[in-house]
Design brief:
The protein is mainly α. It has a single domain, classed as Butyryl-CoA Dehydrogenase, subunit A, domain 3, CATH 1.20.140. 81% of the residues lie in helices and 0% in strands. The chain contains eight helices and no strands. Bound molecules: 2-acetamido-2-deoxy-beta-D-glucopyranose. The site of 2-acetamido-2-deoxy-beta-D-glucopyranose has 6 residues, from helix 5.
């Protein structure tokens, strides 16, 4: 008797788990295929040099990206541009702050200029992504690849400026980490664009 009761109990327990699991999958089903979409991002990110950053920066947009290599590359560009803009704004603020010596200000200004170039290049690339309609695909994607590469070069030049001893510890760490992040996002976006170009072409 005791055996039967406990068996019955565990059956109910299993049933309960089953019901709560299926309720979970029902609520998940309201967003179309979220698991599949994040899987697509994860798989696509393996072609990048910074796959973890690639996934964390793009997974929030999984539902918009779905399984489109073009939307994935476009979103990567947009995420990169907004990060480049906010880093640039931060640097402008920091360069005006008290207690920064002239050498630091000079290094910051060079970097702000390079970041500003990279913001322009990323912006042009994003505009061109909107023009990708088939007829001039190779021409347009080539321009985009060129601009994003140029943006990456500008950001790297900026990071190199921090390699010297012209900056104090805290300022250097704050700014450098941000720029490295922008450069890594740019590198990832370029890899996703190259992959998209290959698939399409
Ligand atoms: C990227 O941003 C542009 C400009 O805001 C927008 O038109 C475009 O739809 C965005 N691309 C993606 C893939 O979200």
């Amino acid at each position: 008797m005791a055996f039967t009761t406990s068996k019955l109990f565990s059956t109910f327990l299993l049933l309960d788990i089953f019901i709560s699991l299926s309720m979970h999958s029902t609520s998940a089903a309201r967003n179309p295929l979220p698991k599949t979409n994040t899987d697509f991002i994860k798989t696509s990110c393996t072609v990048t040099s910074y796959p973890k950053l690639c996934f964390t920066s793009l997974s929030a947009h999984a539902n918009a990206i779905q399984a489109s290599p073009q939307l994935l590359a476009g979103t990567a560009l947009n995420v990169t541009l907004s990060s480049a803009k906010s880093t640039s704004n931060l640097m402008v603020l920091l360069s005006r702050s008290q207690g920064i010596n002239p050498r630091e200000v000079a290094a910051m200004k060079d970097c702000i200029e390079e970041l500003s170039d990279s913001v322009d290049e990323l912006g042009k690339s994003i505009n061109e992504m909107g023009q990708l309609k088939g007829t001039n695909f190779n021409l347009v994607i080539n321009d985009i690849q060129t601009w994003v590469s140029a943006a990456l070069t500008d950001e790297s030049t900026c990071t190199d400026g921090f390699a010297g001893k012209s900056m104090n510890g805290n300022l250097k760490i704050t700014v450098k980490d941000r720029i490295v992040n922008v450069a890594q996002l740019t590198s990832n976006a370029l890899a996703l664009i190259n992959k998209f170009a290959l698939i399409h072409g």
